[in-house]
Design a protein that fits this description.
InterPro entries: NAD(P)-bd_dom_sf, Sacchrp_dh_NADP-bd. By secondary structure, the chain is α/β, with parallel strands linked by helices. The chain is 38% helix and 22% strand. The chain is built from 14 helices and 16 strands. A 9-stranded mixed β-sheet has the order 15-14-12-11-7-10-9-8-16. The chain has a 7-stranded parallel β-sheet with strand order 3-2-1-4-5-6-13, with helices on both faces. Helix 4 links the parallel strand 4 and strand 5. Helix 1 runs parallel beside helix 2 and helix 8 packs across helix 11. The longest helix is centred in the C-terminal third of the chain and has 17 residues. The chain starts with 7 loop residues before the first strand and ends with a strand. The C terminus is likely disordered.
């Protein structure tokens, strides 16, 4: 890889669950240039030792001076913690330092979008919505949108493993979504590779708000479930009945976060799907993987490498707006592990999202609208896995509950 940005990469939160994956992956590609950072200098130094980096930094986001000092000799910052506002983005972009933001907060991401002109004038690039959801969901939505030639409606489904230990920011964000105002829309069912048919519930993921703007799609809804059906039904039943309103205060949110941090029900496998519709055309792109934190870190690292290679022009973009990252799901599959990508166009399996031209996919969609759904073979072979029987039992589609 030819790199045009030869300065150091500062990973804020570099010793956390996501940041440590980012540091390890980047250290393979740009050895000696990755700088772990966080509130604990000792933890950052230990992370630097593990990846063979000569430098670590103490960065406390409550103390702007520590961030300003750490930005010396830095060309790119990977933000693997959630400050909740645009303070890091503004500090970086104003001085020409590029940014990859792993945050999931809608308010933080939209505040950073406003800095597009600042970034362009300084020659810095920022990539937002980097992770699983938002992140891979955005990329799957763009793929499905392109396959139908421009969607009027996109449904995104996210089923996460409840058995994985998540970081404090992820737990806090989930609690906020559960106790906050209920999003519009009702539950739906989605057929997912390896998991079968699942009921998913509207949830305020930031991807749906960004996709309405970046893809110019009027209706985008993201729905959520955990891999445990019992836990999903209990949580959303409590939300529907109003029980969770009692936890809206700061003390209640902390109590719920403590429960989620201590109790792990389910596995570490997750599944994502984006279904795009335009009239009688429909396309669903699905991804299954294990280890949400690990995959989030890998997505962030690939985005960082794209910036370092000069494949992201100056300005602020969400991940689905970066053409050089459109094939990221396939790259994750090629890297090994439990990731798998399956693509369906009106219930008919295509060979591979990477090799089916849009014109051919639309031809398949047009044929299937007249002939009805045909038999389909799973593309799990792309990842070397057998097809799941439940996923092959009927056409992949999202239907009202």
């Amino acid at each position: 890889m030819t790199l045009v940005n030869a300065r150091d990469v500062l990973v804020i939160g570099g010793y956390g669950a996501v940041g440590s994956v980012v540091c390890a992956r980047l250290a393979q590609a740009v050895p000696g240039r990755v700088v772990p950072a966080g509130r604990s200098l000792a933890a950052a130094q230990e992370a630097a030792r593990r990846i063979g980096s000569p430098r670590a930094e103490r960065v406390d986001l409550a103390d702007p001076a520590t961030l300003d000092a750490a930005l010396d000799r830095v060309g790119l910052v990977v933000l693997a913690v959630e400050p909740g506002d645009d303070r890091v983005a503004r500090a970086c972009l104003a001085r020409g330092v590029s940014l990859v933001d792993v945050s999931a907060s809608r308010g933080q991401l939209e505040a950073t979008e406003v800095l597009d002109e600042v970034a362009r004038e300084a020659g810095a690039a920022a990539v937002l919505s980097v992770g699983v959801a938002p992140g891979l969901t955005n990329l799957l939505a763009r793929r499905a949108h392109d396959l139908v030639g421009g969607a009027q409606e996109i449904d995104v489904a996210v089923v996460l493993g409840g058995g994985e230990a998540h970081g404090a920011d992820a737990i806090r964000w989930t609690v906020d979504g559960l106790v906050g105002p209920r999003p519009d829309g009702g539950p739906r069912q989605v057929l997912l590779p390896a998991l079968g048919r699942r009921t998913v519930h509207p949830f305020d993921f930031s991807d749906q708000h960004a996709l309405r703007r970046t893809l110019d799609v009027p209706r985008v809804t993201t729905r959520f479930a955990l891999d445990s059906r019992v836990l999903t039904a209990s949580l959303f039943g409590a939300r529907r009945s109003g029980v969770l309103r009692a936890f809206r205060g700061a003390r209640g949110r902390r109590a719920l976060a403590a429960v989620f941090g201590a109790v792990h029900v389910g596995g570490d496998r997750f599944a994502l799907a984006a279904t795009a519709r335009d009239g009688d055309r429909a396309a669903q792109v699905s991804l299954v993987a294990s280890g949400q934190g690990r995959v989030t870190g890998l997505v962030a690292a690939e985005a960082a490498l794209a910036v370092l290679a000069g494949r992201v022009p100056p300005g602020v973009r969400h991940v689905e707006q970066v053409d050089g990252l459109a094939d990221l799901p396939e790259r994750l599959v090629a890297a090994g592990g439990d990731a798998a990508v399956e693509l369906f166009v009106d219930g008919v399996a295509a060979q591979s999202p990477a090799v089916v031209p849009v014109s051919r996919a639309l031809h398949i969609a047009s044929q299937s609208s007249h002939e009805g759904p045909g038999g389909r073979a799973s593309e799990a072979a792309v990842a070397g896995e057998p097809a799941d029987a439940a996923a092959c039992a009927s056409p992949a589609s999202v239907t009202p509950r």
